[in-house]
Amino acid sequence: VGKIRKKRAAAPPRRKTIRVAIIGAGGRAAGAHYPCLAQLPGCDLVAACDIDEERLGGVCDRFGVAGRYTDFRQMIETEKPDAIYAFMPPHHLYDVAAEAMERGCHLFIEKPPAVTTEQVRQLAAIARRQKVHTGVTFQRRFAPVIRQGKARCEARGAVHTAH
């Protein structure tokens, strides 16, 4: 009589650790984004960049980030991150986002993704050409105050003129 062999359960797929670098160390990034990334399994927060060295040092010390840079290009070249999280005023974002993607980094940015519709289209074209994944954060879209505001706007109907 033949033996019945138990089939071995397949091991769960191993998750790759993602090397992440952050551009921006301001209040929103330090209060929301750094804490989430620092505790995210599979995320290795390898470097941060900000033009304000004091602010950069404080955030890096608080979240255990070793790589510290004031030039994002140097950070990307040296650290070779898989992904970049970029948090800065919108008028700076396009150039930084475009260059990060041109260098092959996946990109996650704060809203708005650019200042003009044409810039957004150009960023999308770069992402497609470089085959990088992108995302834009809308981290408070489910906050009660935002949901209430949205409901009020929808109740009023379409806006055609603003003064």
Notes on the structure:
Pfam families: GFO_IDH_MocA. Keywords: Oxidoreductase. Residues 18-137 form the Gfo/Idh/MocA-like oxidoreductase N-terminal domain. This is Gfo/Idh/MocA-like oxidoreductase N-terminal domain-containing protein. One of its GO terms (molecular function) is oxidoreductase activity. By secondary structure, this protein is of the alpha/beta class. It has a single domain, classed as 3-Layer(aba) Sandwich (Rossmann fold), CATH 3.40.50. Helices cover 44% and strands 18% of the residues. Strands 3-2-1-4-5-6 form a six-stranded parallel beta sheet, sandwiched between helices. Helix 2 links the parallel strand 2 and strand 3 (67-69). The longest helix is centred in the C-terminal third of the chain and has 14 residues, at 117-130. The radius of gyration is 21 Å and the shape is globular. The protein starts with 17 loop residues before the first strand and ends in a 7-residue tail after the last helix. The model has no long low-confidence stretch (mean pLDDT 89).
